[in-house]
Design brief:
Length: about 130
């Protein structure tokens, strides 16, 4: 099953993303495993603890301790998680800073159904 992670320190932002993903699931009659994390530290700890491997990861950049960019760097350095598609969902205006971790996409907050649908279509079309 396709596994998606959502990492944002704001519960409302996580809820919005999950709701948009669920709308896609209903429209396309698909089902995803969705995990939510409130910090980069929590995400990385659960990857280590449970051996989670994500097909797609939505990351906020501005979080309390570990930024989304630093979280993505650590994910890219691990053999087991480096192939994960990463989407930054951020209010940051400087999108160039994210290019070093080769994100699939950078989306400005708030996300829209069109953004999420386009992202999901792209990752599901991968061989």
């Amino acid at each position: 099953m396709f596994t998606i992670g959502i990492c944002d320190d704001r519960p409302l932002s996580r809820y919005l993303l999950e709701a948009l993903i669920h709308l896609y699931e209903e429209e396309k009659d698909v089902l995803f495993n969705i995990y939510e994390f409130s910090s980069g530290e929590e995400l990385l700890a659960e990857i280590e603890k449970q051996g989670l491997v994500f097909d797609l990861l939505f990351l906020d950049n501005s979080m309390k301790k570990l930024s989304g960019l630093e979280t993505a760097r650590q994910i890219r350095q691990s053999k087991s998680t480096s192939a994960c598609s990463i989407v930054f969902v951020t209010s940051a205006e400087d999108h160039d800073q994210f290019m070093q971790v080769k994100p699939l996409r950078i989306v400005s907050k708030p996300s829209t159904q069109e953004h999420i649908e386009a992202i999901l279509e792209k990752v599901l079309a991968k061989p």
